[in-house]
Amino acid sequence: MLNSNNIPSSFDAMLKFSEAYARRTGTFFCIDPGVTAVVIEGLAKHKDSHGAPLCPCRHYDDKDLEVSNTYWNCPCVPMRERRECHCMLFLPQNSDFAGSNQFLDINILLDSINSL
User: Fold this and answer.
1) Is 57 annotated in the active site?
2) Which one is catalytic: 14, 37, 44, 57?
3) Closest CA to 12 of 115, 111, 109
4) Among 16, 24, 31, 94, which one is least packed by beta carbons within 10 Å?
């Protein structure tokens, strides 16, 4: 069980990255904090196991190859070029799924992860 005393450094790094990227791009997090929590956790796990925050919402036959190709490393090419985040981590303000936050409450994210 994750709590504010045992947060992996990669999770904290992905959280800080996500907030900074949302502010820089004018995007917002999903209105459902569970979606955001799972995506950030997946990015952190890929960073730990593969050295890069590979998009956790896709299937890869060879994750290490995908990391080296960099196309799906977050922010992925579709997000950087067209502002399309299929993970729903970075959403335009007019999206039906966008909340109003560019900052995240770590305790809400941890509660979401622990309730799975």
Assistant:
1) yes
2) 57
3) 109
4) 94
Q: And the tokens for 43?
A: 């990015």
The DSSP call for residue 99 is -
The string of DSSP letters for 42-73 reads HHHHHHHHHSS-B-TTS--S-HHHHHHH-TTB
**Mean pLDDT over the full length of the chain:** 93
Q: Is residue 30 a known part of a binding site?
A: no
Domains of the chain: 9-115 (3.90.460.10)
* Whether residue 4 has pLDDT greater than 90: no
* pLDDT surpasses 80 at 77: yes
